[in-house]
UniProtKB/TrEMBL annotation:
Keywords assigned: DNA-binding, Transcription, Transcription regulation
Source organism of this protein record: Prauserella halophila
Classification of source organism: Bacteria, Bacillati, Actinomycetota, Actinomycetes, Pseudonocardiales
SMART domains given in the database record: FCD, HTH_GNTR
Pfam family, one: GntR
Protein name (Swiss-Prot/TrEMBL): FCD domain-containing protein
Amino acid sequence: MSSFAAYLRLDATEGPGLPQNVAGQLETAVAVGLLSHGDRLPPESELAAELGVSTGTLRQALETLRQRGVIETRRGRGGGSFVRSASKPPPEAVMNRLRERSADSLRDLGDACAAVVGGAAYLAARRAAGDDVTHLRSLAGHFRGAETADERRRADSRFHIEIGVIAHSARLTQAIVHLHDELASLFWMVGGEVDHHPVTESAHAGLIAAIEGADADTARAVVMRHVEDRVQHLLDLHLDLVVRGESSMTATHRREGEGT
């Protein structure tokens, strides 16, 4: 089963809000790199079956994605729905988002990510078979070859999502997509790769070795330690942003007081 197919396995119940849920799910698939710029979506009937929804619901979801600029539809021979380049928020917006989050919410995100991805790594080490490790090694190679922070973010997410696939758990795969994307989108977009790029490569290598050696405890420990390092980096940066913001406000108030 591919990462994309595992992620699409939903327990969906038709209803008024379902098209928006489907649209959000597909948009997340683009954001984490399960779908890349230029990729052609599967035929509507096939994609609807993967999602467990009607073709009518899927068409509403695709129309929403067209309006958001996530996909474009081409007519005629060789046509279909194709993924467009994902727009990236400006660095200032990402920094503001990190500053406005509480330290407790960052720790909570890290705890959830460590528990879910760590549990998937434990199961992956026990269940890996065939060419699973070879594929994981290939994804680690994509990360090493990435040239931009956004490419590294996508490659890193693909690597971790694949752990859920190797664990043979659709629910864990879906959870990894959402949790890891939330953590990785903050980490990589605030410059986390500057100091942690080699650390991430080392963590990938350690996890691959643990899964290949069927060492479930080590696989889980590698993931949890790596997530903890990332969360600590975000916490340190969050504190720095908060302090700088308070200092700036104090200086502004002082100047205003001197001017009166």
